[in-house]
């Protein structure tokens, strides 16, 4: 079984190049992690043919995680998000090191008049019998919230507010 996430987010009054540049900006990614109350984060960017390969690593505490899941993840949830940006689209692979399952999908950016529309499509798969579906739902919800949080910080960031 798998859980799908589809988020359509808008960045008003900007360009796809400006939004795409956020993916490789260490200060922006640190601001997103801080906004989401991550306990640590790092960003690595490597040039690749036609774009960049990005690895965004961050960790969340488990104080808001249901008890059935807390037993599986421990004291923190480390997340490794690999993005292969080629032009204005990225293939995405998100893993939680040492845990079964992954999140795969894509991010696309498109100009729509004066705005940029970002589409995030991910599929969450967790290979744990009996409770895998519950964990997929939990992770899907967290990833959807993370995408919306990144959008909120990005809109402010592009408007010049670096204190998001």
From TrEMBL:
Pfam families: DUF2505. InterPro entries: DUF2505. This is DUF2505 domain-containing protein. It comes from Nocardioides jiangxiensis.
């Amino acid at each position: 079984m798998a859980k799908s996430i589809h988020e359509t987010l808008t960045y008003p009054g900007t360009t796809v190049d400006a939004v795409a540049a956020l993916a490789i900006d260490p200060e922006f990614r640190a601001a997103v992690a801080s906004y989401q109350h991550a306990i640590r984060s790092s960003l690595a960017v490597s040039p690749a043919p036609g774009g960049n390969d990005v690895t965004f690593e961050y960790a969340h505490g488990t104080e808001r995680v249901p008890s059935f899941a807390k037993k599986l993840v421990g004291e923190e949830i480390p997340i490794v998000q690999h993005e292969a940006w080629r032009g204005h689209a990225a293939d995405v692979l998100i893993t939680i090191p040492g845990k079964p399952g992954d999140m795969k999908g894509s991010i696309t950016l498109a100009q729509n008049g004066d705005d940029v529309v970002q589409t995030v499509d991910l599929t969450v798969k967790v290979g744990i019998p009996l409770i895998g579906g519950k964990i997929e739902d939990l992770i899907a919800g967290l990833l959807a919230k993370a995408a919306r949080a990144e959008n909120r910080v990005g809109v402010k960031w592009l408007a010049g507010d670096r204190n998001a």
